[in-house]
From TrEMBL:
Keywords, alphabetical: Transferase
Protein name in UniProt: CoA transferase subunit A
Top-level taxonomic group: Bacteria
Membrane spanning residue stretches: none
Pfam families for this protein: CoA_trans
Molecular function (Gene Ontology), one example: CoA-transferase activity
Protein species of origin: Parahaliea maris
Amino acid sequence: MDKRISAAEAVAQISDGMTVGIGGWGPRRKPMALVREILRSDLKDLTIVAYGGADVGMLCASGKVKKVIFAFVSLDFIPLEPYFRQARQSGAIEVMEVDEGMMLLGLRAAAWGVPFIPTQVGLGTDILTHNPDLKVIDSPYDDKEWVAMPALKLDVALIHADRADARGVCQIEGPDHYLDDWIARAADKTIVSCEELVESSYFQDPARARQVFWERSITDAVVEIPGGAHPTSCNPQYGFDVPHFKAYNASAKEGGFAAYSEQFLGANEAEYQERVGGLDAIRAIPLPVY
């Protein structure tokens, strides 16, 4: 069983109008090389589900997005992702903004094959005001009301991992795998980019096996792209690129996304990485200290 494909082949499996879940968290371990491949494509009208960062902002800025379902879209040290902010303030996209925990419940519902999961989160808040499609239901067991968080079913999940084998076993070595396992389980198809492709024997070490968070049967495709999370981090491989993010943020005020793309995007991932200093430079980016 060999699930290895190229980034172009991976993106070719996405169609206009699909719902795409993107793993990672803000500026951390985003499948940015796959996002860049979408930027180079003709895809449009996508619904993006993400704990978002520059992945969401770039896709909005390039006109690929119809709707964003999110709990936040932030670069952390730059609190508001600049291009997502522009898209939302201009009304260029539809949005569904929910609590972080509600989004997790939506992914779990999709993974479990149920239409919704009841929760008290959101009761008495403007989440219900701004999301009129969210239903409040009566409990069949007592007199309490619950928010029925609907399943967030994904057509495709895009995730970046540290290592994977050709069969689709994926390792996330960093201290937090975020909600990537639920994003993978909620999707009809899961595509994983990785820093390194390894032999299956690599996972015979119990410590490494404990860093595998979903079954290989859930992974449909593996794309080896060292440095593929840049400019986001891939702990412990490398940190997020603060100077690059500052330049990206500044471009929203002067030059626009077209100028940013012209400077950095390139015709393929190799050209992108050359323009940002090369793989060695990416791997030399220090991890953030909090």
